[in-house]
Amino acid sequence: MIKLFSRAVIGLSLLCSACAGPTPNNLSRLDLIQKRGELNCGVSGKIPGFSFLQSDGSYEGLDIDICKAMAAAFIGNSSNVQYRPLTAAERFTALKTGEIDILSRNTTHNLSRDSIGGNGLTFAPVVFHDGQGLMVKKSSGINSLEELRGSNICVGSGTTTEQNLNDAFQERNIAYKPIKYQDLNQVVAGYLQGRCKAMTSDRSQLAAARSGFREPKSHVILEEVLSKEPLAPASAGGDQKLSDAMRWVIYALFAAEEQGINKDNINSKLLLANSDPTMTSMRRFLGIDGELGKKLGLKNEFVVNIIRSTGNYGEIYERHLGKNSSVPIPRGLNNIYKSGGLFIAPPLK
Ligand SMILES: N[C@@H](CCC(=O)N[C@@H](CS)C(=O)NCC(=O)O)C(=O)O
Hints:
By secondary structure, the chain is an alpha/beta fold. The protein contains 14 helices and 15 strands.
């Protein structure tokens, strides 16, 4: 009760402060998160592998682990996260009003969302490179966009998906009818009930949705990829302290994978670096020397806190989207550059 009440008071003060800008007295929202001791993280909650509400009330997935890594770095405790499930249409307003501190919800980074004349958000580095796809019933025999001419297509509103669908079909001069829904569950229901020949979304979401179907093998994701969907966490714009901290949390996850530092060996790496003054860059990375954390408004050991909580980026990926997960997606572009992917961390110096 007390916790609920104090949360409501903090929530109210944050909400009011949001009316005049991100926070009062030009405080960064990072300071508020640290004062509150809890991170409000906006998620979907409906996508297996990314953010999914479990039957025990907990959340799981790659987007959830990004919230945890942020909380570990900002507050020193990855459990201190309030997850706020949001629809696609609600997500940016929730950031602007201060209802959430950060958004970690399969959100595509694009110019309109990132710019001051658009949604005015600030994006952290991409955590999953996706692309839009289409899923059809195998029995339909459909293999290409052309074969969907004149068909109904189920799509979520308030998403990049809606616009890409229009672009792709218009460019190819293919007539179609979009059937719009509020969220993925409704899109899936429309598709399974036969209202549409195809459903469209980010390919990761199609794979995630299919994993929950009674007969996943009866549905195919078409080869054609309609767009680039670089999914990234975001914060309200104009708060450099928070956005810097977010950026370097993600880079720390990539850098730890690059260097082979993981949840299992973090303590031994720390011991080793502590006893060996010649391991200069490792000592800086783990916060033994230098003040990398302090420069971001974090503890110097923020990287250690992250890795102890979630492991490095590769471990997060394996847990939720790896071969043995319920939504296996080959890493492809979502690998570190040393292994042929797109992820690279600038130097943590
Ligand atoms: N990545 C795209 C689409 C993401 C998205 O939110 N898709 C819809 C479905 S098409 C959705 O609501 N998915 C998750 C959910 O239902 O919570 C974007 O940022 O606009």
